[in-house]
Amino acid sequence: MKVPDGLRKAVRTIPDFPKPGILFKDITPILGDAALLAASVALLSEPFAGKGITKVVAIESRGFILGPSLALRLGAGFVPIRKKGRLPCETLSVGYGLEYGTDAIEMHKDAIGFGERVLIHDDVIATGGTAAACCDLVNRAGARVEGFSFLMELASLKGRAALCEHVPFHAVMAD
Ligand code: AMP
After folding, report:
1. Is any ligand 1 atom within 6 A of the Cβ of residue 17?
2. Could you read off the pLDDT of 108-120 as tens digits, one per residue?
3. Which end of the chain is more exposed for a tag (fewer CB within 10 A), N or C?
């Protein structure tokens, strides 16, 4: 499926949000347009249809916007990865580096079974640190990461280089 021109145009770039120096990619105009919303989910799922994906894993918080629709489209379940301390049951946890300091993310220990086939999703990939940490959690659960699917890649930050190179990488658009 061809990426509609309108999809790229609908991403707003907001300078200095949430901090000075960040060029924030705002996808909310896509979400508000029924045709662009449907195209986004279709394009995110396209390379992974028929690949036996059993779970879509997405990261708080903007991964939760399109992640469940992507899972429905692929006939898979949805698993949230959240920031430390927000999941109520026993978790697997991983720390990862941020620009200044570190943070940790968590996934319920029983959310994914051994040998499941997992697609990792977020709206935007920047440095790739968050997606790499998600991959680590999925591997520790004994499941297989079958792919990564992002709506937008910030190509200059080379985030895809932070991910396992043998795992299929898909970004619907690059900036
Ligand atoms: P990363 O650097 O790839 O670990 O990105 C960290 C998280 O912040 C991801 O969930 C991205 O969606 C989000 N993010 C990072 N940079 C931007 C940006 N310029 N615009 C929008 N979201 C961003």
Report:
1. no
2. 999 999 999 999 9
3. N
